[in-house]
Model the fold of this input.
Amino acid sequence: MPELAEVEYFRKRWDPGLGSRIDRVLTNPKARIYRDIPAVAVQRGLGGRKLLGSATHGKQMLFEFSDGAWLGLHLGMTGKLVFETPVYEPVKSDHLVLETADGKLVFSDYRMFGKLTLDLTDHGGPPRWWCDLPPRTLDKGFTKKAHTTFVRRFPKTPLKTLLLDQRGFPGIGNWMADEICWRLQIPPATRSGELTDKQLDAVWKITRQVSRDALRVIGDDWNTPPNSWLFNHRWKDGGNCPRRGCGTGLERADLRGRTTCWCPQCQA
Ligand SMILES: [Zn+2]
Done:
């Protein structure tokens, strides 16, 4: 599932369409992403407008169009954005295709857990729901104090599980949460209420560090993270802890419904 850096990567795929007018909007009306808003409303809402800008917020994306139209996209499990040539022929999993003179902006999602919203605002700013999202992990508003207050609300929740809570950690997903716990050298199942103040500060710091590292490596070109991260070692069975001087075999188990990987030596 795309996490904040992968979402940022996909957002940029539509950059070639910035400033272009949407000449035609193709939709797959039966797709589940139109469960909240009919495809025809999206066609009417975006046709003829220009793509002006875009932003990400955790796992959410927002695209601004001229005259106050805002397209929100959530990639779900398998959604992706691509820019295709003008002669590209859409396939079944392409649920939304915005045609410009230079190419096609495509939202495809073969498992259809993605979500789409369209807001037409007349106040010149983004829609309410966007403004109400909690601070991003690299925002100024993600302060140590706000972070501590949030974590202390859930003393019984395992740290790893809490890191996946989008109300407190927007954009953190499964691999990032494992990476954060591993860098902290804290067992992922540690109940949040057992964390010391010093450890809580470290959670805040490392969450920001992993967010920055992920954006740097994946957000632009989707490069492979270095072998010094847990990332390259966590995906399949086997694998050893990449920490210098450790090399212990990694453990994997289900934690509150999510596969979790950790080093039993460093995170004991
Ligand atoms: Zn280790």
Q: What stands out?
A: The chain has a mean pLDDT of 96. The chain has two domains: 4-131, 144-262. Residues 241, 243, 246, 248, 263, 265-266 surround zinc ion (CB under 6 Å). Strands lie at 24-27, 51-57, 60-65, 69-74, 80-84, 94-99, 104-108, 115-120, 251-255, 258-262.
